[in-house]
Amino acid sequence: MEKLIITAAICGAEVTKEHNPAVPYTIEEIAREAELAAKEGASIIHLHVREDDGTPTQSKSRFEAAIKAIKERCPDVIIQPSTGGAVGMSNDERLQPIELYPEMATLDCGTCNFGGDDIFVNTENTIIEFGQRMIKLGIKPEVEVFDKGMIDMAIKVAKKGHILTPMHFDFVMGVNGGISATLRDLVFMAGSIPAGSTFTVAGIGRHQFEMAAGAILLGGHVRVGFEDNVNLARGVKAKSNGELVAKAVRIAKELGREIATPNEAREILGLMKK
Ligand code: KMH
Ligand code: ZN
Asked: Ligand 1, closest atom to CA 14?
């Protein structure tokens, strides 16, 4: 089987230090968490940024500072800024980090409830606009899908030429409003993407490692990190994103999957050299 790409979603926009004091906010904290994750085997850092007080932001200059600080510590790692940002942000606000020409960025392919009154809005026109912008800038999208219908939407948009193929999907499973994080649903999702596509799986909360194991067995890839889950095991807070990556590596090794380096991940995902 192909080597395993591990993505570390180190920060997120919704999780706070109240959930786990190790959640990074400052540039220094973000760079340190990225380094710990990369050292343990993450080849991609999925990146959100915060103001020093923890407020989520999509500010270009804040991303620029975070990317510079991460590259100083781990020059090889693939940095994948979020264009999802936080619930309620405008499209222009969300798109700012792509102006930094990252190798990858997320492309969220549908609207879903996000708990309580929150709705994460991604209309068809938004998806097309984001997809087109990424094509123009030579950025490989990670197609974020929170439900099966979003896979279908991505396929439709790709057929019209707004997302290049083969696509790389991220199945985000277990969001309060999206598809459940069950093995049945994971098999359904993995069976629903076009031949030649790749996928990673982000299980939310306590489902993180069950979904990771499922993805490893199915030949997919894995996303772990504080954005999705702050616990190493039930009732045990992870001290760093590195601990979460290390656990994913242990599971992969037990199941016979080798871990991809950043350059091997580039090869698997067909990233352009910058
Ligand atoms: N924070 C969520 C509303 C992404 O990074 O593209 C959206 C999100 C997805 O995290
Ligand atoms: Zn994200």
From this structure: 1
The tokens for 177 are: 């409003």
Please tell me the predicted confidence (pLDDT) of residue 1: 87
Which of 93, 106, 114 to mutate for ligand 1's pocket (most ligand atoms within 8 Å of CB)? 106
Query: What is the mean predicted confidence (pLDDT) over 203-210?
Result: 97
Alpha carbon 184 to its chain centroid, in Å, reads 22
Residues with Cβ–ion distance below 5 A, ligand 2: 82
Strands 140-145 and 236-237: unpaired
CA distance 182 to 173: 8
pLDDT score, position 273: 53
Domains and CATH numbers, the chain: 6-269 (3.20.20.70)
pLDDT at 183: 98
Beta carbon of 13 within 6 Å of any ligand 1 atom: yes
